[in-house]
């Protein structure tokens, strides 16, 4: 995103253990002391913070101190989607990023003897030409005619010593991909070594039905191979394999492996048209305010960015993932991959607008997003772990925040919504009973404050509970040349809204206060979405999401 940016890395977490919040806070404080411009956190807490509010946790409060020092803070939303309120990044001073797909895919395919084609993942070559190869599952290839594997790792092809090499030679070895791979107890690398040790022509992993909710990354394979990432496709594959077995009528021993297949290589990318789309694992809003699961008047995530199958540099000595041992690059997925994209774009904005506050940078990114995919259709959001593409529906602000980040547009936002440390402090002080906690974390005393999240000058309007009527204000600052703007309110269903002024002229560098009066027109607890659009006569179009949850007339 910003190839000439300098990067500082602070070690605070460890493989298999994670770490303590105190170590992360120390790293944040050290980064601030080192005068970084942007902090990118591809980490989230492993549980919702207890206490008065989710915002009052050591990491978020340390990040608020960083924001006070002018540092833009980016955090991954978390990989706990697609259920509502699964968000793991809470505070309004943090720019929270969800994960979307891009249009580059590395798919390979297995073509079965019954002419079915099943898609898989794996950075692997294909089998030779159009030749079809017999399939043999590891449990059917044990030495001494053993009919069942004596331990799970044999079905996962982790140990070649129990396999009949002569029986497997020249066939495609079929292995189970279980939760043990996710936990690091089994590895694709070890299965590949097994396949090569027994002279298999290739390897196919079918997905254990218990492996749900994990994004399988295209794994480097030095022989023809793939992982079938869908449990439904895995059932189809296994059904064909089992139906093609010929068994001895007396012993039930397999006497003929009738299933055949060929593997089409996946080393070259394919380019699809249904991008971007919000990935199933990307954490969703609404933003939980506390452990009672009350909703905050704050929109999360802020935006989405590419997070699926992202290439990145990798230490060949790294042991974090056995699949990539010895590799110089790896392809990973998750909101942890999405957040650094935004950190890089923030560096470009900071370069063009050195005086921008963290909130101004976030505003530029939020109000200039893309809301359509490559085909001009609404961005879609995956809704389930299994077969996620079959359950897509149009994304809402709780899925994608303001939308998909648009790097070019963010460098010319027109208007920005600014917010200061003192504003965030007033927001925290507005939480009932928060004064001692605020004093403990910040050293500041709370005066009288009734500010809520909806009152913060954010590039969104979010109202968790609308009792009859509510007035909120937003102040915009013109960071372009003099321009005339028209304000258009597309109110959420069940709500009437007006903006004053509906039109205004704003000179370069000046501010304009806009007042929104929001009235409930019905009583219900269904979330509804709209937006507010600022149309400039010099081409700027500034859009902020408008969300109302519970309404009562």
Automatic annotation (TrEMBL):
Q: Which CDD domains match?
A: PA_subtilisin_like (cd02120)
Extract the signal peptide range.
none
Which residues are in the Subtilisin-like protease fibronectin type-III domain? 455-548
- What is an annotated GO biological process for this record, any one? proteolysis
Please name the InterPro entries in this protein's record. Peptidase_S8/S53_dom, Peptidase_S8/S53_dom_sf, Peptidase_S8_Ser-AS, SBT, Subtilisin-like_FN3
Q: What are the alphabetically sorted keywords of the record?
A: Hydrolase, Protease, Serine protease, Signal
Q: Which Gene3D superfamilies match?
A: 2.60.40.2310, 3.50.30.30, Peptidase S8/S53 domain
Does the record's keyword annotation contain RNA-binding?
Answer: no
Tell me the protein family, please.
Belongs to the peptidase S8 family.
> How is this protein named in the record?
Subtilisin-like protease
Q: What organism is this sequence from?
A: Triticum urartu
């Amino acid at each position: 995103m910003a190839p000439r940016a300098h990067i500082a890395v602070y070690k605070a977490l460890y493989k298999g253990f994670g770490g303590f919040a105190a170590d992360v806070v120390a790293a944040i404080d050290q980064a601030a002391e080192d005068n970084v411009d942007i902090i990118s956190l591809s980490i989230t807490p492993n549980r919702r913070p207890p206490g008065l509010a989710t915002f009052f946790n050591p990491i978020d409060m340390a990040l608020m101190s960083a924001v006070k020092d002018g540092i833009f803070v980016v955090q991954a939303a978390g990989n706990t989607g697609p259920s509502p309120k699964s968000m793991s990044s809470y505070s309004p001073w943090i720019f929270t990023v969800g994960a979307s797909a891009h249009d580059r895919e590395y798919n390979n395919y297995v073509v079965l003897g019954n002419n079915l084609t099943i898609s898989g993942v794996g950075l692997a070559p294909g089998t030779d030409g159009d030749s079809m190869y017999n399939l043999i599952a590891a449990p059917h290839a044990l030495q001494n005619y053993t009919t069942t594997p004596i331990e799970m790792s044999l079905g996962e092809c982790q140990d070649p010593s129990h396999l009949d090499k002569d029986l497997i030679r020249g066939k495609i070895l079929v292995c189970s991909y279980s939760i043990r791979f996710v936990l690091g107890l089994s590895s694709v690398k070890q299965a590949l070594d097994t396949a090569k040790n027994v002279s298999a022509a290739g390897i196919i992993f079918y997905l254990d039905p218990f492996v749900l909710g994990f994004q399988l990354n295209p794994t480097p394979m030095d022989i023809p191979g793939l992982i079938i990432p869908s449990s439904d496709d895995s059932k189809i594959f296994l059904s064909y394999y089992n139906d093609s077995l010929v068994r001895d009528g007396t012993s039930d021993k397999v006497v003929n492996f009738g299933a055949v297949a060929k593997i089409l290589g996946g080393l070259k990318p394919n380019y699809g048209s249904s991008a971007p789309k919000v990935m199933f694992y990307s954490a969703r809003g609404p933003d939980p305010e506390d452990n009672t699961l009350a909703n905050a008047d704050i929109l999360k995530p802020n935006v989405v960015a590419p997070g699926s199958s992202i290439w990145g540099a990798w230490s060949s000595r790294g042991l974090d993932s056995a699949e990539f041992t010895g590799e110089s690059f790896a392809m990973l997925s998750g909101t942890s991959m999405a957040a650094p994209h935004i950190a890089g774009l923030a560096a470009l904005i900071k370069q063009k607008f050195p005086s921008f506050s963290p909130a101004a940078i976030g505003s530029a990114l939020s109000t200039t997003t893309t809301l359509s995919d490559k085909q001009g259709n609404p961005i879609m959001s995956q809704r389930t772990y299994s077969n996620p593409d079959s359950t897509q529906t149009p994304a809402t602000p709780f899925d994608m925040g303001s939308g998909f980040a648009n790097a070019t547009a963010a460098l010319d936002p027109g208007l920005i919504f600014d917010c200061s440390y003192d504003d965030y402090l007033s927001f925290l002080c507005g939480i009932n009973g928060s004064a001692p906690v605020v004093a403990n974390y910040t050293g500041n005393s709370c005066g009288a404050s009734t500010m809520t999240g909806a009152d913060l000058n954010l590039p969104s309007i979010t109202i968790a509970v609308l009792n009859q009527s509510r007035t909120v204000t937003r102040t915009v600052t013109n960071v372009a040349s003099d321009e005339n703007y028209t304000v258009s309110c597309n109110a959420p269903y069940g709500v009437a809204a007006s903006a004053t002024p509906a039109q205004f002229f704003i000179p370069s560098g000046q501010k304009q206060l806009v007042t929104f009066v929001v009235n409930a027109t019905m009583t219900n607890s269904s979330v509804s979405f709209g937006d507010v659009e600022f149309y400039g006569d010099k081409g700027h179009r500034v859009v902020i999401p408008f969300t109302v949850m519970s309404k009562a007339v």
